[in-house]
Amino acid sequence: MLDTFVIEKLLSFLKEDAYPEDVTGRFASGIKAFAEVKVKDSGVLCGVKIIVPFLKYMGLEIKGMSKDGTRVNKGDVALRFEGDGETVLAVERTVLNVISKLSGISTVTMEMVEKAKGVNPKVKIAGTRKTTPGLRDFEKYAIEVGGGDPHRLGLFDSVLIKDNHINLLGGVAETLRKVKSMTSFTKKIEIEVSSIEDALVAYKEGADAILLDNMLPSQVKEIVDKLKGKVILEASGNINPWNVEEYASTGVDVISSGFITHSSRALDMSLDVFRS
Amino acid sequence: MLDTFVIEKLLSFLKEDAYPEDVTGRFASGIKAFAEVKVKDSGVLCGVKIIVPFLKYMGLEIKGMSKDGTRVNKGDVALRFEGDGETVLAVERTVLNVISKLSGISTVTMEMVEKAKGVNPKVKIAGTRKTTPGLRDFEKYAIEVGGGDPHRLGLFDSVLIKDNHINLLGGVAETLRKVKSMTSFTKKIEIEVSSIEDALVAYKEGADAILLDNMLPSQVKEIVDKLKGKVILEASGNINPWNVEEYASTGVDVISSGFITHSSRALDMSLDVFRS
Amino acid sequence: MLDTFVIEKLLSFLKEDAYPEDVTGRFASGIKAFAEVKVKDSGVLCGVKIIVPFLKYMGLEIKGMSKDGTRVNKGDVALRFEGDGETVLAVERTVLNVISKLSGISTVTMEMVEKAKGVNPKVKIAGTRKTTPGLRDFEKYAIEVGGGDPHRLGLFDSVLIKDNHINLLGGVAETLRKVKSMTSFTKKIEIEVSSIEDALVAYKEGADAILLDNMLPSQVKEIVDKLKGKVILEASGNINPWNVEEYASTGVDVISSGFITHSSRALDMSLDVFRS
Amino acid sequence: MLDTFVIEKLLSFLKEDAYPEDVTGRFASGIKAFAEVKVKDSGVLCGVKIIVPFLKYMGLEIKGMSKDGTRVNKGDVALRFEGDGETVLAVERTVLNVISKLSGISTVTMEMVEKAKGVNPKVKIAGTRKTTPGLRDFEKYAIEVGGGDPHRLGLFDSVLIKDNHINLLGGVAETLRKVKSMTSFTKKIEIEVSSIEDALVAYKEGADAILLDNMLPSQVKEIVDKLKGKVILEASGNINPWNVEEYASTGVDVISSGFITHSSRALDMSLDVFRS
Amino acid sequence: MLDTFVIEKLLSFLKEDAYPEDVTGRFASGIKAFAEVKVKDSGVLCGVKIIVPFLKYMGLEIKGMSKDGTRVNKGDVALRFEGDGETVLAVERTVLNVISKLSGISTVTMEMVEKAKGVNPKVKIAGTRKTTPGLRDFEKYAIEVGGGDPHRLGLFDSVLIKDNHINLLGGVAETLRKVKSMTSFTKKIEIEVSSIEDALVAYKEGADAILLDNMLPSQVKEIVDKLKGKVILEASGNINPWNVEEYASTGVDVISSGFITHSSRALDMSLDVFRS
Amino acid sequence: MLDTFVIEKLLSFLKEDAYPEDVTGRFASGIKAFAEVKVKDSGVLCGVKIIVPFLKYMGLEIKGMSKDGTRVNKGDVALRFEGDGETVLAVERTVLNVISKLSGISTVTMEMVEKAKGVNPKVKIAGTRKTTPGLRDFEKYAIEVGGGDPHRLGLFDSVLIKDNHINLLGGVAETLRKVKSMTSFTKKIEIEVSSIEDALVAYKEGADAILLDNMLPSQVKEIVDKLKGKVILEASGNINPWNVEEYASTGVDVISSGFITHSSRALDMSLDVFRS
Question: How many CB atoms lie under 10 A from the CB of residue D216?
Fold first, then answer.
């Protein structure tokens, strides 16, 4: 991610909170302030890379920072910066809301990655498009920081044929053929199936990957036994930190989980400001 | 919220997912499709009011809808709409991500409101500024739909003096006096304190509301006993569905909770598309 | 106001005047130029704080400046800056139009403040929402520079129930009750009335402030006599520099005036450019 | 002006006032309302053409309207519209601020046009670039509605060499020659002079128009006597409704006035809303 | 492409040409006009799908249209529409510039597709990222209309390792391994090589596709003989309508050409407007 | 062109190519890279002035540059810059696409200027509005760099009455009179004619310039013989490098050509990146 695009997005978040005026913090204009982002729980830090260029753009000076991906614990200081009091107070909540949310995602991703790799060292934990509206890019980045695979960035970067597409375009084979014949050779084509039969059809029709949707681990296992190594196999559907090992142990290549973005909890952090 | 501003925001979310092109769904262009948003868990529905003008703007026809605030259960249909297959598939995830997230917030707000009012019928459950970056307006709306008080929309609409402001501007009394003398008569002034002494000072200096930050219920109770009815008293700091009753039973006027926006889980929903 | 938001707005003003090209000034590209903003009338200076970060953003160097709020007279130099001739000429009119307009507002505000405080030292002179479209934030700032109270920044920061709301929602009492029950505790609620009876009703129903709309000074006085000190009383409606003392002498708390923004005259200024 | 660009600008004005939420007017959502824009003073109406497509875009229905350019008097109704109460209340101030401001400009333009043409029937009253930042296009339109000439829309549409350009680029002759040789044949070239000598030089060098800056009427007359009919002559500099006849009677071709945009007063109007 | 995004882009093009005002066409306001887009050369029509929703958005009525992909000849009418004269004249050039440019691209694409398939029926003619800045999406669409493969939409949708990447990251094998290990499983990975040796290395390291850059047809042939059917082979580098057959006859899978976007000529068209 | 506006446009081009992420180039983050823009054909360089402020804005350092307007040949280095590898790779194509396209325009403009001036030393070669959508300002600049006249920047800066306007508004005389009476004195008025008779009418009615549309050189000559020196005469319509001398030799004042923008070929260039 280029800094210029990251800053643009953070300015829109700041605007939401502080435009046209911070009616409390403006009284601190002209007072030099020092700020510390303190972690209040255990987890994986994420968002510092995003926040730092933004703070610099706002005229603040970075006095210290941990790297994204660092495992942090209660009391750790993630970031220190300094500058005009009005600006420091205005950015406070934007900084915290972004870092807390992204660190929460990296934390749960890492948790699932570790659990899954414990039983299946080559498995990938991937995200989905069930991200927070407006935060897609940042959340995909948080997944990578947590050791996961971002999966598609959007509808534009690879083909994933789902049940709804098949409902409109025909059966598994027919839809796959039609889409394949009209899609750029630069794109992978994945298709979602919900039965062993459809998985076999998808393989025969040349899908690059097959998404096994909402299947029991035992069903996933059955397909893995048949197709492992011939096509990328991805399991998905209500997989979370509590059942991820079970799915991983089927030998599937990829496990994708909406939970890590739509239901992860923010990592608790606070920002302390002092006269410097 | 005026439709025109809501649509503008949803278009930016759609763009994030579907611009420049939905390389899968575009093959459904020209096929008329019918879609149903199905609820897969119990909760309070929120977001239909936001989604409907957006769908209309996209040229889709609404065929049925439940109202925001409705209690929903697994299997309920929240929304039905119809139109060109390419458009239906392109909006699918934006629709789901928005409704699921907001319904999750309304659901947990309602849960906390009911618990709190069970022991203190006049108490208000309020949000904070710990909202998802870019979703502030929608999340404040979801809090109201869940029966809560949105609290400040941002730094611009009322004064809330926090510890960081006091660190920069002086003590409780001095900061309050300075801010009060320079703030428009149209704004309420609230101040955060962490001791009984400061609460009494804040009251004497004419604060409109006092935020009791990170206090034990017993400490809150002590201040409530002294100041109830003389100034608005708000408890805050790690209050969640599991300890809200304890805080409510102190008799405090308002309980604010970041949990409802930063750590609520999305309400599970899916969208089924068929040829119509 | 944070510099980043101020600059964004000024760039849009510059674009209006100088995009895609200043077909005259472009011939001065490469020539170093020195510029002076000269005041040509007496008044209160306003806008330098806004213009300076913009000029710096445009790559110009500030060589001297007076502070907003300074009383200026014909011949005074408000601002000096230096840089590439093409840029200096391109920003000339934007700079002058902004400073002249805002200084005009601060000047008339100060005039009214002084007249009003002469007879009622505690009275506040407040703005209204009758500002120039697109300049709200800057004009509110100019009011504060002139010693006035900005009043509401927009429809979002506090409640002001006017005759049109009452026409739609019911009588004074009914509207006030309905709005009060559904408004966040963080917002003040003010209501506009046009009779003594309604003022008393509004007070009883717990309004935070009462706007006495288009009343004669004698009527205002009558209400002040009854409610002074119990609720904030604001007089409004065609109050201008020529009748403000009369209204101030009623003892009212606040006098708001659309005149200061919609009908104030720009303070005459010019910009002289030389080779440096 | 194409409706689509006008609407875009008005939405930004509405946003300034009503985003994220009209915390008072939102309670009128669902109530059908009827609104009338009433004139409260005498003048020339302007802005209806701009407001009407915006109101339609907002989903409101036009029930009656006067045309821009109509002479109006106290009590006249300029515009009637109907629709949802929340929307009607949200647009109220934007509508009034735009129409009042523009009508104020058209009114004073018409006044100056009539005075000037009384003594010099062919003279044109022109605007300047001393417009309100952000309102250039609308104010130029208001000048035309008042019978005036809009003059340059910005720095991009024709060349006007002023004293500051000459200070940087050389004397009148040298600057004119340089600019002429490098300017598209599609643009007129005007030059500002402050002496008879320079006016004659400018004419000889082939200027299309000469701006006589801050001269006494007698000086203008002297130049008019020499150059009338050979080159367009424009008088400018502190010309207002009180001295316009004197300048017009010199026989000059064009009189431009910053007064009509920077110091005109808004035409008083109000909007009354009722249940419909 | 969703209509809403297409319209947004076309409005920005219109703005470039017609904002703030069409000083000629505005005199046609109120006159109903009928317009015909006439083709003046032979080629493949492209852009109607893009222009039609834009014209509708502008309030114009479509009276007839040919489909994109139609082979057209001099005298053919591609599009007929009707509406207000000011709007018709304002959109004229935007409509023509878009349709002419895109049709020029589709035409040359089709020419190269036909030539190439004549000697190699399965070969694909693909675009590159050498598109006109700001027109990427539209030009990729024009390539598809001409029978070509759009190739990557941008840097975001699949991996293409070029010589510059290898210069920075290491040799072919090392770069490929590093990138592969850190790229989402959803993306194809292609690598550019300029020798047979590197092509073989790339194949062994598991590239999905290999781009043979600036090779002679004979060199391409040599690699095709070795790797055909094992990995996608793409030839690129100064391939144009005059040498495409030679490259196609090597048996390569894909031929990509910057020529079709950066050096194709617009298809000549005109727009005739009449009173309707 | 002010740098700030140029940068804004280039960022939008970069976004088109590299947002949200350059999935290949991001692996070069942290590696310092050096880049050279190399010319691969003969022509006139254009675009360096535009690219340089953009590269600086992106945090890259300029290490050497040729000036726009320089005649370049195969092997020449137009620009050298240095900085972070991820940024260098992300901007590569935007830089090349802009410089190649603009240099192609300057090159063909210069070619036509030289040919035309060979037979008519005072003739001007002008552009048209047949520019690439979104690139108008840059292409007009490229025309000037090539020695041409940019002609109108858009519909806003001068009046050009074409056949379509006459079709809607009346005959040549009637349209010209109507438009003249309602157009600002600051604008030139040109009219397109297709016969000698209409050219004479246009001259009598006081047009500032006459566009001779799609006439044979002999017809142009006939009009030039009658009107040369009395009014600006412009020939237009399918004039290109192969017939420009013939038109120039008629003695016409201006020759405008859409060819130079809509059908010029990009000047071949490449960018080489190395570790620095």
Answer: 13
